[in-house]
UniProtKB/TrEMBL annotation:
This is Flagellar hook protein FlgE. Residues 227-267 are annotated as: Disordered. It is found in: Bacterial flagellum basal body. PANTHER family: FLAGELLAR HOOK PROTEIN FLGE, FLAGELLAR PROTEIN. The gene is flgE. It comes from Pseudomonas rustica. PROSITE patterns: FLAGELLA_BB_ROD (PS00588).
Length: 444
């Protein structure tokens, strides 16, 4: 009996050394989770149970369980390196065969798909529609789209403007009227320039000239590419835009913006916005306008004046914002904490091109390790639940980083010594039993 007990102890100690050795071997493996050998004692028993004086029959390996504790996140500088800070697993698909991993060492294959290091499995996530909206719910192979970003014509311009209330008045009516002329600085108080774009991504300059015509009253003249945006063909008013009038109250707040209405001269358009509804992109040569084949935004360009004030401070404008842009070529990729992949373009725009999905399991210990720092779903693990990072209990994505192995080398070296001692002690049990057997034989 003692021989069997000692042999079971040797076997158990050997397995403990195997597990410890495997942990030590993978101390530098990204996403690796350390294992622990778990043992249980063995007793002989009948259907009626075991007696109170039954001696154990040794030990056996009950389970090798992996410890899914968090590993350190280290920076690598590679944008496609992703570490999970928290719970969850990356989902990989190899022609429909799904596996799960914590190792975020990803590459791009020749078709643009994000894959593991040996290019055999593709990273799974959520795709996007034409507008860059994430399509949650259906997993797909994540792919980096390197196509150009199509241009967008400008539809709105917004800025914050202050007009100096103490600026001198420029009289524009009567016998001594000063006629507005964009080429003469003395005919206006201040000018502002804003780039706007047509449907082909061509850039145009929109100039706004403000003229203080009386106390609490200003006029605004708007030119695009140096011409009246409403003029076409050989119209003599190519540089004679219609002015809008800004009215302020005694506290310097804008009360209204009045723009002449060509369709109804008796009823001007009252709004806090200016609208370029008839602007057509093109060039002017010798006083003749020629379209360039592009078009302005079909809805026109709305210029918000709602944030305009008249205080005793310099006439100035904040940096304007406008929603148009030229064609853009992809320059780099960024990934945020939610796993959303953003393509950044040369026109200073960015667009979501996909989102990493994380899988979670009711029982992580039930996953089956299949090598390559990967696991497979089993009946014991339960079915996976998929969602975006930072959703519920799922962790966040750290781009340019990797999760290191969670192996504690100091603990493993101590376990190595303990395993060696256990092996020697069990070997001593067999040696002692052998000595006793020799003594018995010598007595006969």
């Amino acid at each position: 009996m003692s021989f069997n007990i000692g042999l079971s102890g040797l076997y158990a100690a050997n397995k403990q050394l195997d597990v410890t050795g495997n942990n030590i071997a993978n101390v530098a493996t990204a996403g690796f989770k350390s294992s622990r050998a778990e043992f249980e004692d063995v007793y002989s028993a009948t259907r009626l149970g075991s007696g109170s004086k039954v001696i154990g029959n040794g030990v056996r390996l009950a389970n090798v369980s992996q410890q899914f504790t968090q590993g350190d996140i280290s920076n690598t500088g590679n944008v496609l390196d992703m570490g999970i800070n928290g719970s969850g697993f990356f989902t990989m698909s190899n022609n429909g065969s799904v596996s799960y991993t914590r190792a975020g060492t990803f590459k791009v294959d020749n078709a643009g798909y994000i894959t593991n290091t040996d290019y055999t499995s593709r990273l799974q996530g959520y795709g996007v529609d034409a507008n860059g909206k994430i399509l949650n719910g259906v997993l797909t192979d994540l792919k980096i789209d390197t196509s150009n970003l199509a241009p967008k014509s400008t539809s709105s311009v917004t800025s914050t403007i202050n007009l100096n209330s103490s600026a001198p008045v420029i009289v524009d009516t009567g016998a001594n009227a000063v006629k507005f002329d964009p080429s003469k600085a003395e005919t206006y108080t201040k000018s502002f320039s804003t780039p706007i774009y047509d449907t082909q991504g061509n850039s145009h300059v929109m100039d706004q000239y403000v003229v203080k015509t009386s106390d609490n009253t200003w006029k605004v003249y708007t030119l695009v590419d140096g011409r009246n945006p409403d003029a076409t063909g050989s119209d003599p008013t190519l540089t004679a835009p219609t002015a809008s009038t800004l009215s302020f109250d005694s506290s310097g707040k804008l009360t209204q913006v009045s723009t002449p209405n060509p369709a109804d001269p008796a009823n001007p358009i009252i709004s806090s916005d200016l609208t370029l509804s008839n602007w057509k992109p093109g060039t002017v040569t010798n006083g003749v306008f020629t379209p360039n084949g592009a078009a302005a935004n079909p809805a026109g360009v709305t210029i918000s004046m709602a944030k305009t004030t008249q205080y005793n401070a310099d006439t100035a404008r904040s940096i304007p914002t406008q929603d148009g842009y030229a064609t853009g070529q992809i320059t780099n990729l960024t990934i945020d904490g939610t796993g959303t992949l953003f393509a950044n373009f040369s026109n200073n725009q960015s667009k979501a091109i996909g989102q990493v999905a994380l899988a979670s399991f009711t029982n992580e210990q039930g996953l089956q390790a299949v090598g390559g720092t990967s696991w497979k779903e089993t009946f014991a693990s339960g079915i996976p639940g998929y969602d975006a990072p930072e959703t519920g209990t799922l962790g966040s994505i750290a781009s340019n980083s990797l999760e290191e192995s969670n192996v504690n080398l100091t603990n493993e070296l101590v376990d190595l010594i303990k395993g060696q001692s256990n092996y020697q002690a069990n070997a001593k049990t067999i040696s002692t039993q052998s000595t006793i057997m020799q003594t018995i034989i010598q007595m006969t």
